[in-house]
Amino acid sequence: MDEQQPPSPRVAPVQLEDCIEELLKFTLTSAIDGTLGVDIGLSKHYCSNLLKEDPDSPCPDTSVLSEGVPPYPLYKRLAASLCQCISSRAFCRTHNKMELIDEDKSWKQKEDEWNKSILQHGSELLNILKIMDFELHVQEPFFTQLKDGQKTIEGRCALGDYTRIGSRSLILFNKCLVLQVQDVHWYATFHEMLEAESLVKVLPGVGTIEEGVQVYRKFYSEDKERSNGVLAVCVTKHTSQLYNSLAAILLVRILALFYMKCHLTICLEDDVCIWYPDRGNSESKLDGNVTVNENMEKLEERIGFHLIVSGIEDANFPGFGYEGVQRLLGFVHTVGTVPEALLPPRSTLLSSFLLPHNPNIKGSTLTDGARALTKHVNRSGGRYWGTFCGSGQSLMNISPPFS
Question: Where do the ASCH domain residues begin and end (predicted)?
């Protein structure tokens, strides 16, 4: 097999625009499969739709925030908007305010709250990037094994900047996972390394040392291995993770999660127990049918305790949630807007203006797309969409722009 030598590790600084897409994709994927460690409040179906591809549309140019219907996958547009917000340390509209559309007056207050979230958690994210020393890419299944803590040693040939990696170095893997180096060991060959370090720590799932050597042979020739030696980079998961800061930004209003979904860790001197507010805790005899505050008052009457909201540091800074995400995607909210809804792919929208709404009625030219626009009548007041009357063709002429 041809040698596919992995590139030398990228060194600091790591730029936000270079990693935000993969970081957001990793965060949404982890939220879907339940491995993120915190419930961001966005449904799995919603997160899946953000990641959904549109095979009938060209790959979008994420370097420019264009107006109109955002192209799929939507997470790329969302990532570009988040990057703009975090870099400017403020919530940024991705569209110009339309004077002819009446928006909910509460939006100003919501945007003020989102500004606080960006300022706090966006700054946390940028600060983590600043302390990165190296950046590496690992193929599957080894990346997942690193993330889950099954793989704790990364083997590389001792070339270039790999020789600069040392104890306590911080490495950003696959633009989303921060691991800290505990130690670095040098060996003459990969065979020697696998024997000394334990195969299960270096290549989990590989049956024999000989098979493990063949894994590395796909990337390094035997001559290169013997000429330079190899490194066993021992790593552990760092306490500060980019995806935790990003999850805090996306989080559906923290106070709602506090009352409904989050786990409360109650530290009782030497004992720690988990209380699930949605169903109570049989050990502490809490009533799952009353509010969190009422249950807390009952606890305070019985025992003294220190309360920690797992994964949430400050309940005063609500995250974006559905409404904030839609805002970053360029959606305009009016009375009747469904917060949990996402636009279908551009190709689906365009095809809807070619499909007859009543194909069995002779002479009817009204399309599905034009018919759907009539639902905006009560919101527009004849000011933005125009007057809804006439033939299907006239309705098609006032369809939204697709840029």
Answer: 136-239
Which residue's entry shows tokens 């919501």?
110
Beta bridge partners of 183: 234
How is the beta sheet containing 264-268 ordered, strand by strand? Answer: 271-275, 264-268, 306-309
| DSSP H/E element including 192 | helix 190-197
pLDDT tens for 105-164 read 667 788 888 999 999 999 999 999 999 999 999 999 999 999 999 999 999 999 999 999
- Radius of gyration of the chain measured on its C-alpha atoms: 26
Give dist(CA 323, CA 328) in Å, integer: 9
Residue 9 burial (C-beta neighbours within 10 Å; 0-12, 13-18, 19+) = buried
170: helix, coil or strand? strand
pTM > 0.85: no
Could you report how far apart the first and last alpha carbons of the chain are, in Å? 45
pLDDT at residue 101 is higher than 80: no
Q: To which H or E segment does residue 257 belong?
A: helix 254-260
Per DSSP, what are the bridge partners of residue 259? none
User: Would you list the DSSP string of 283-312?
Assistant: TTT--TTS-HHHHHHHHHHH---EEEETT-
Place of tokens 């291995």: 225
CATH 2.60.40.420 fits 149-238, yes or no: no
Residue at 251: amino acid letter: L
Asked whether 318 and 113 are in contact (CB, 8 A), the reply is yes
The domain spans of the chain are 149-238, 263-309, 353-403
